[in-house]
């Protein structure tokens, strides 16, 4: 049975929001021990127990998973009748015995006792059992749990999380990592640090920050670089994003490590480190490269030999592809085209064979000549039509060419033909000869 003494209920207790709880046997048969009959409020209570006797009071609560149990504590203010024999937390003796908390008809005039409970706590359900001893007609217990300062946590938990916008990427794709830091407490934590090295497989990385607060956000001043130093206000959630482009190779695994500032602690459910590990899907990546020693100074009318390599820099073998060679004006292909190549005007198209992964190469060698003088022109090699290739920014390469006549004469123009020498008709040459002869006679006559 439970008896709530009116003097210790919310209307009369010093706590105003707690109730005095006392077990009592009403009209119980006097068959055990010594009967203790007291008249209180014109009611006869017959408690058929031997002195002394003990009552156990159980208090349970659930500890949020983000709270570090090592930093959780509260003050317990209590009254007892007659004495507190001990406190047991999660089946472990926390303290024993405790001072009596007094019992008077007017408890507001009696001093309560205070004690700090520090665990051992655990995430989830926690059980506290209070053992109260009494030698009189009934026993009772009234307690109130309050924060030790401003919070039940003596350190502010900061929860972090780490995600990527996809689980798998192709080379050359955009990638975004998100790190959140959330203040789960009631106080600002200053001088926090977030270490987050850029993965080897990410290029052109850039950090940004946003806050859950409409005003007074704690985001660092841009540009942001890791490690990131920041303050975080009570209840604030900061979101840091790292954006970039995936490289051809390299790990995309990304780890964020939080070092809390003064008064902060990593949330128990996330810890101080969070990692996300998306994968980089292996695909071919063909890129052309002109062979060392490729001729650049040509002689008009003399064929030259050129070699361009089709390199596979990807993590997967290629099965196909097309290499196209484009000559500048006043150049032409000579000789027999390489196997698998077809010449059409100033272009030559070659079907590429399968090329193994990781810098495997196939070479295409051809001959071409300049038919006129050239300066500052270029031959272009371009690769296309490669199945599953995602990185296209490195699919073209050029090599410079210039050309002169064998005697070095004649005007030269950029990327075109030499200007022709003026040609005179026979009658014009005869007239010019007569004019020159007449000019000579006139000069001699004056002399």
From TrEMBL:
Keywords: Membrane, Transmembrane, Transmembrane helix. InterPro entries: DUF11_rpt (IPR047589), Ig-like_fold (IPR013783), OmcB-like_DUF11 (IPR001434). Pfam families: DUF11 (PF01345). The keyword Disulfide bond does not apply. Residues 158-260, 296-399 form the DUF11 domain. Signal peptide: none annotated. The keyword Transmembrane helix applies. The chain crosses the membrane at residues 424-443. This is DUF11 domain-containing protein.
């Amino acid at each position: 049975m439970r008896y709530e003494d009116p003097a210790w209920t919310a209307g009369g207790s010093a706590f105003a929001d707690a109730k005095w709880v006392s077990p009592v046997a009403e009209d119980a048969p006097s068959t055990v021990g010594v009967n203790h009959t007291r008249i209180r409020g014109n009611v006869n209570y017959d408690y058929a127990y031997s002195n002394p006797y003990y009552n156990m009071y159980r208090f349970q609560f659930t500890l949020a998973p983000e709270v570090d149990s090592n930093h959780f504590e509260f003050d317990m203010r209590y009254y007892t009748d007659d004495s507190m024999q001990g406190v047991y937390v999660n089946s472990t003796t926390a303290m024993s015995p405790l001072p009596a908390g007094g019992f008077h008809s007017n408890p507001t005039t009696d001093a309560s006792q205070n004690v700090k409970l520090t665990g051992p706590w655990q995430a989830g359900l926690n059980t506290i059992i209070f053992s109260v001893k009494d030698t009189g007609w009934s026993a009772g217990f009234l307690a109130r749990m309050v924060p030790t300062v401003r919070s039940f946590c003596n350190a502010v938990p900061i929860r972090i999380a780490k995600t990527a916008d996809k689980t798998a990427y192709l080379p050359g794709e955009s990638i975004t990592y998100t790190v959140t830091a959330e203040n789960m407490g009631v106080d600002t934590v200053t001088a926090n640090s977030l270490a987050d090295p850029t993965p080897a497989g990410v290029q052109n990385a850039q950090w940004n920050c946003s806050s859950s607060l409409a005003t007074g956000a704690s985001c660092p001043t841009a540009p942001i670089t890791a490690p990131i130093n920041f303050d975080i206000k009570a209840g604030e959630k900061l979101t840091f994003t790292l954006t970039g482009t995936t490289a051809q190779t390299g790990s995309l695994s990304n780890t964020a490590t939080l070092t809390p500032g003064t008064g902060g602690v990593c949330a128990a459910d996330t810890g101080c480190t969070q990692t996300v590990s998306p994968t980089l899907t292996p695909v071919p990546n063909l890129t052309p490269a002109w062979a060392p020693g490729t001729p650049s100074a040509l002689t008009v009318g003399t064929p030259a030999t050129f070699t361009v390599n089709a390199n596979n820099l990807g993590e997967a073998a290629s099965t196909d592809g097309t290499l196209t060679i484009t000559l500048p004006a006043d150049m032409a292909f000579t000789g027999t085209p390489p196997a698998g190549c077809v010449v059409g005007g100033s272009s030559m198209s070659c079907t590429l064979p399968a090329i193994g992964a990781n810098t495997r190469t196939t070479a295409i060698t051809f001959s071409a000549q300049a038919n006129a003088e050239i300066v500052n022109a270029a031959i272009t090699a371009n690769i296309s039509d490669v199945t599953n290739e995602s990185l296209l920014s490195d699919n073209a390469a050029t090599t410079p060419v210039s050309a002169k006549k064998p005697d070095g004469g004649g005007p030269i123009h950029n990327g075109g033909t030499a200007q022709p020498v003026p040609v005179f008709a026979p009658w014009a040459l005869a007239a010019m000869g007569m004019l020159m002869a007449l000019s000579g006679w006139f000069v001699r006559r004056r002399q």
